[in-house]
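Retro notes, item 3 of 5
We never archived the inputs for the 1-deoxynojirimycin complex last cycle. Fixing that now. Sequence and ligand:
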Amino acid sequence: MSAPGPWWRDAVIYQVYPRSFADGDGDGIGDIDGIRSHLSHLADLGVDAIWMSPWYPSPMADAGYDVADFRDIDPAFGTLSEAEALISEAHAAGIRMIVDIVPNHLSSEHVWFKKALADPAAPERELFWFRPGRGEHGDEMPTDWVGEFGGTTWTRTTDPDGTPGDWYLHLFTPEQPDLNWEHPTVRAEFEDILRFWFDRGVDGIRIDSAALLFKDRTLPAVVEGRPHPFHDLDEVHDVYRAWRRVSDSYPDRALIGEVWMPEVERFANYLRPDELHAAFNFDFLGCAWDPELMRACIDRTLDAHRAVGAPATWVLSNHDVTRHVTRYGRTTTTFSFENNLDGTPVDLELGTRRARAAALLSLSLPGATYVYQGEELGLWENENIPVDRLQDPMYARRGHSRDGCRVPLPWSGDEPPFGFSTAEPWLPQPAEWKDRTVQAQTGDPSSMLELYRSAIALRRAEGGLHEPHMTWLPGAPGVLAYARGAAFACVLNMSPAAVPLPAHRSVLLTSSPLDGGDLPPDTAAWLRLAT
Ligand code: NOJ
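Structure as it came back at the time:
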């Protein structure tokens, strides 16, 4: 059954993190060749689109989110012609392609920044945020802004004569200088980059750190209650209106923003009809495993999106956050960067049970659903990576590393590297993943992989799951129940006791076995209703 309306309104979008998907050339790092030879996994899973995390030439100071050239591919991942081949092969398999564009900053190895550093009089200097320091000798940073990873946001340059020079702004690492979005060259360049990838058949663009682009040029301090100097400045919307014009000049393209924003109204501004098509739902991702909070989050999400006519998105994990099997197995089940729960006790069995139920929730709410690679295998966060193997620049600044959710996928076999590579993977895989390989789970009806395959197949086939809305059904305390159309319902039991199912004609799928016909705790069921 095909969905009404454009694909991006209710697609299942699978995030490929190329370093960790599959390694085709035996160097321990995933690459395009590996992705091409495992495309059948994504076709079997039934996803509608792939979002590819950055694959461009990069010194990898931030795992590729420090881009040196947006029009090429890093040699560790392959070549531009291999990328083009992957796009065609994905299309032939019925899978659309979304690439990741990082507009807030470039790599310090980008030609613009190299020219800007080499000569204080270079015109490229204006494309970034170079400023003199404060204090008599200019040796104090222009502001005390704290970076998005923690840490400072300015680095001092050295002039060609060897004397200390201006400082440049970087909201992330010093290897990621921020662009000056007030400059027309920056705007024109990115519009051209969008066209470059749209011309290569790419169906969508994921926009990194989408709310950060503009800075208050008076460089005020961050003061509670005053407008933030670099979060969500109004000027950013002009950029996305221009990008929307570019994407609208191609058929069926989508812009998807990474917008971390606690205020839902400000979040929804990015989704006005002439701006982005969709944005990631971090409210849902960070929500506790709690029936009232979850229900309120779903309502908040749907209300905010309805107001601007945009589809909601449902996201449980990505390459930046603790994997949700681990999150849901902790006593505190929320996620936030500020509240570091690393190393706190995890009940993986409970986390897995909840993750299975969450899969049926996220795949049956109205809107698009994102699946982060490995979540379909039930992978958990690897919290046991030796410190000397950690690569994430966040670790030094915040004491939390995102590497634990970026560990290479287990494909087959009984021990690492589990078919990921013929070499040692760039990050170590837990030996316990031998039960979580694609090979081990295929054909096992109780596996996470078969649950995802069945759920995504049903999602396509069930008319109700293409209805644009949901309606809450009455449920016992701690139970979330909703209908999609007249014939489909999802029931999620977040209470501590088994509950009877509402009247139904048949059970389509459950995340864990029923208990004498009742729905056990931390279990979801998809039902065909009697109509
Ligand atoms: C958000 C990305 O998802 C993250 O991985 C990256 O470190 C920052 N933006 C900076 O580009």
